[in-house]
């Protein structure tokens, strides 16, 4: 440890190199800790469980333009047809498709509007009694709709009076957990909660209430109708390939579009986050590489400048390990100062990002973790050149003097 | 002298190839990473219609009752109600104006000759074409009379025309949307704007529509809106008639105001309009408020450039700084090693300034090489962006500005990094080195 003083004095003689190294280490620490945290944030978001068997569910839309068939009847015929296809577990027409990024939401209340009462936002999905099974949802309490409860209508005046809801949604309105059997209101229309299902994701993963869904037993004739299909494991690809031609064979005057697998539509919805995550990973990797190379290069340069001094020290009896130790300690001293500055910079950058963008507070653990890794990296970068320095022969020192 | 310095730089580059290549690589990687995120940012924030972006305005009206707030930054809905849009459109104001709404249809020719497919359509007023500089290849817009009477006519773009009619003049032919026949009155050149600035509700970088139709058809045929609909008031809306009389907002509106005075007058008109509406019980609030955003302001207001992108740009510039620190270190090593040679040159009469310039030329050359190589790195990065997110297809590219910016930024960055080493080396005291030769 006695060596610290002479090393420090030597450093003071070539300040610029040390400062450059220190700066690189500081900026690297600041960037890497923040980037790593953003990556972690996205990975947790992307890895979230939507609650669906994403690999075996897909959706599509039918746009009917033919006028010679009754839309409602055709939708039911299609449902039956798809349900009977080999490999299909269940299928249902739905007003909105989960994970798709498109649908409808509204505030549900405890009293009929315009009376003021407790309110919770939820997406709503209209369909028949097959909806829950098609999405593969388990009932936690209560029961599913019966087919008699499903209102099939052309006019907008008839409305159902029961609903099935997700647990997160009903717990928001009834925090004591006594939501089953209660009446909630959509506008001024009452509906009794007859079933509660596990919490699954609605149409928007980035909604303020992503897992609030109300399932309404209502079938309306729609020019553009969404369908969701759940297949047996492994059968999805084949069914997706043929579904368009098979449905057009049933009735040709329509267009089948937006055929998407559930996992694919989730990826599409999250494409921006996946992109950000990948860009940051590349950035971190390249940055660490560049900084390591920088340390490597500067140490090599320092050694070449000090060849004679190293030779002299060796000639005067210094062991190889002493030479290696010298460079390691020198590097550690620079790194430590750089890391301390880097930690403050990381914290400041984190604060800045938090103020201007929707990024949570950077946990201190990330800064410390990054600082430790950068320290280890700097050692790894310096150990090669230091060994080379140790191999300098003492004779070099004597040669040109 | 400059060419001589270039020659010297090239010789110096060849003399220490490893260090030189390392420096060029460091710049190239730094520039590559920076340009990748900067290019996407540039494409996202670029003015999509430079000659008119300051003249086209999207109005916002504070329609909500007293005490009700909207979630936007200026507390106003981004779209208009049907009543307001139609009233503003019909108002006797000397300005071009158009309502705008997105919908979609099954398209076919009615004779089974093609497989029906889905296509998106935009409902507008005739002014829209000239306001947004859409050029007609065949035919022209519909007449005001046709628009007024909700005549079943439409304009298609060249992409759809190529698909259905092999690019021939299709004016006068019929096109089926769902079960109804429409007469084609014009074909416009495909609208290629990489930012869908005229409708930012459902993805700012989606493709433009292929079909354009007179807005009055929406009411006549009760067409559904495929964009967003939002409300603030408890209203029972179950029919189309109820919807168009409601306070739901679901329509975009654009007005062309070429001068400041025109904008001021239009603002006064909007205030007067809201006061007029108060008499029939709407706009129940003490302070009437409206906003008029031009195209660039509207893009800013709607956060077209994503947060992620801004964060990426900031981080990549910091990354560039790390690369520069590296280059600075390497330059110091390289230049100082050459001190003896410089000593001789100084002794032979080269001035400090000349030595300084010579070294700046050398670092600029490194910057140029690094910048050019950086373009390649950035292309690789942008390719990565495109395959991760095909939605960014038109954004993850380098236009001419960015291609020129890459070497420019690289050279400036290298000059900044090279200043100190060059200054250090030009101060070389010739005597010291002459002695030791």
Q: Topology of this structure?
A:
The complex is a heterodimer of chains A (401) and B (437).
Chain A: H1 4-13, H2 15-46, E1 57-64, H3 71-83, E2 88-94, E3 104-109, E4 119-127, H4 131-135, E5 139-142, E6 151-153, E7 162-166, H5 167-173, E8 183-186, E9 189-197, E10 213-220, E11 224-231, H6 236-250, E12 254-261, H7 262-269, H8 271-305, H9 307-315, H10 320-356, H11 364-390, H12 394-399
Parallel strand pairs in A: 4-10, 6-10, 7-9
Antiparallel strand pairs in A: 1-11, 1-12, 2-11, 3-4, 3-8, 5-9, 7-10, 8-9
Chain B: H1 2-15, H2 17-45, E1 56-61, E2 80-81, H3 82-90, E3 96-108, E4 117-124, H4 127-131, E5 136-139, H5 144-148, E6 153-157, H6 158-165, E7 174-177, E8 180-188, E9 211-214, H7 216-221, H8 240-245, E10 249-256, H9 260-278, E11 290-294, H10 295-301, H11 307-337, H12 339-347, H13 352-388, H14 400-426, H15 430-436
Parallel strand pairs in B: 4-9, 6-8
Antiparallel strand pairs in B: 1-10, 1-11, 2-10, 3-4, 3-7, 3-10, 5-8, 6-9, 7-8
């Amino acid at each position: 440890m006695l060596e610290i003083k002479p090393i420090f004095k030597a450093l003071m003689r070539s300040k610029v190199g040390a400062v450059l190294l220190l700066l690189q280490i500081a900026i690297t620490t600041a960037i890497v800790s923040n980037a790593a945290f953003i990556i972690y944030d996205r990975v947790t978001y992307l890895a979230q469980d939507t609650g669906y068997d994403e690999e075996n569910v897909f959706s599509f839309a039918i746009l009917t333009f033919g006028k010679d068939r009754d839309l409602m009847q055709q939708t039911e015929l299609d449902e039956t047809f798809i349900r009977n296809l080999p490999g299909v577990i269940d299928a249902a027409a739905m007003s909105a498709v989960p994970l798709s990024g498109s649908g409808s939401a509204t505030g549900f209340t405890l009293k009929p509007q315009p009376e003021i009462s407790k309110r919770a936002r939820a997406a709503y999905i209209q369909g028949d009694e097959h909806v829950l099974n098609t999405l593969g949802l388990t009932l936690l309490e209560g029961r599913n709709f019966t087919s008699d409860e499903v209102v099939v209508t052309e006019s907008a005046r008839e409305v159902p009076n029961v609903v099935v809801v997700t647990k997160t949604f009903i717990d928001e309105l009834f925090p004591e957990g006594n939501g089953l059997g209660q009446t909630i209101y959509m506008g001024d229309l009452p509906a009794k909660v007859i079933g509660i299902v596990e919490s699954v994701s609605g149409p928007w993963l980035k909604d303020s209430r992503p897992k609030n869904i109300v399932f309404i037993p209502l079938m309306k004739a729609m020019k553009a109708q969404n369908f969701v299909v759940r297949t047996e494991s492994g059968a999805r690809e084949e069914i997706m390939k043929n579904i368009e031609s098979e449905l057009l064979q049933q009735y040709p005057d329509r267009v089948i579009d937006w055929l998407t697998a559930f996992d694919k539509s989730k990826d599409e919805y999250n494409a921006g986050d996946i992109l950000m995550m990948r860009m940051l990973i590349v950035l971190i990797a390249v940055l660490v590489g560049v900084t390591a190379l920088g340390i490597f290069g500067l140490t090599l340069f320092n050694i070449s400048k000090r060849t004679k001094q190293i030779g002299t020290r060796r000639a005067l009896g210094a062991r190889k390990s002493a030479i290696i130790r010298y460079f390691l300690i020198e590097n550690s001293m620079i790194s430590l100062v750089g890391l301390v500055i880097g930690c403050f910079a990381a914290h400041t950058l984190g604060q800045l990002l938090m103020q201007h963008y929707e990024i949570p507070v950077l946990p201190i653990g990330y800064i410390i973790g990054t600082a430790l890794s950068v320290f280890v990296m700097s050692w790894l970068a310096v150990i090669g050149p230091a060994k080379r320095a140790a191999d300098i022969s003492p004779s070099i020192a004597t040669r040109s003097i | 002298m400059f060419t001589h310095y270039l020659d010297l730089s090239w010789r110096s580059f060849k003399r220490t190839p490893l260090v030189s290549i390392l420096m060029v690589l460091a710049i190239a990687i730094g520039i590559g990473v920076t340009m990748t995120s900067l290019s996407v940012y540039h494409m996202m924030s670029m003015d999509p219609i430079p000659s008119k972006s300051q003249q086209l305005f999207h109005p916002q009206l504070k329609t909500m009752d007293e005490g009700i707030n909207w979630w936007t930054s200026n507390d106003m809905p981004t779209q208009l109600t049907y009543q307001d849009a139609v009233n503003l459109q019909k108002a006797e104001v000397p300005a071009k104006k158009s309502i705008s709404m997105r919908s979609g249809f099954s398209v076919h020719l009615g004779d089974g000759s093609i497989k029906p497919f889905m296509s998106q359509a935009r409902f507008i007023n005739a002014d829209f074409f000239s306001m947004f500089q859409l050029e007609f290849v065949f035919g022209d817009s519909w007449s005001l009379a046709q628009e007024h009477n909700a005549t079943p006519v439409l304009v298609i773009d060249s992409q759809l025309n190529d698909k259905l009619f092999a690019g021939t003049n299709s004016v006068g032919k019929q096109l089926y949307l769902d079960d109804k026949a429409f007469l084609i009155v014009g074909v416009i050149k495909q609208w290629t704007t990489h930012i869908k600035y005229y409708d930012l509700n459902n993805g700012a970088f989606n493709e433009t529509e292929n079909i354009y139709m007179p807005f009055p058809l929406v009411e006549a045929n009760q067409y559904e809106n495929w964009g967003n609909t939002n409300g603030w008031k408890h209203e029972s809306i179950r029919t189309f008639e109820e919807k168009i009389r409601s306070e739901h907002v679901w329509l975009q509106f654009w007005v062309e105001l070429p001068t400041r005075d025109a904008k001021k007058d239009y603002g006064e008109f909007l205030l007067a309009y809201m006061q007029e509406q108060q008499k029939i019980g709407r706009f129940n609030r003490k302070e009437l408020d409206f906003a008029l955003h031009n195209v660039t302001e509207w893009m800013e207001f709607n956060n077209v450039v994503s947060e992620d992108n801004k964060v990426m740009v900031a981080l990549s510039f910091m990354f560039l700084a790390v690369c520069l620190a590296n280059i600075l270190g390497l330059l110091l090593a390289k230049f100082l090693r050459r001190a003896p040679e410089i000593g001789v040159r100084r002794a032979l009469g080269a001035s400090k300034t000349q030595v300084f310039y010579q070294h700046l030329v050398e670092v600029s050359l490194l910057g140029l090489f690094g910048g050019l190589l950086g373009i390649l790195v950035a292309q690789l990065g942008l390719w990565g962006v495109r395959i991760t997110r095909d939605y960014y297809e038109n954004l993850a590219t380098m236009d001419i500005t960015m291609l020129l910016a890459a070497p420019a930024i690289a050279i400036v960055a290298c000059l900044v990094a090279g200043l100190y080493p060059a200054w250090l080396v030009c101060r070389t005291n010739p005597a010291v080195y002459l002695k030791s030769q």
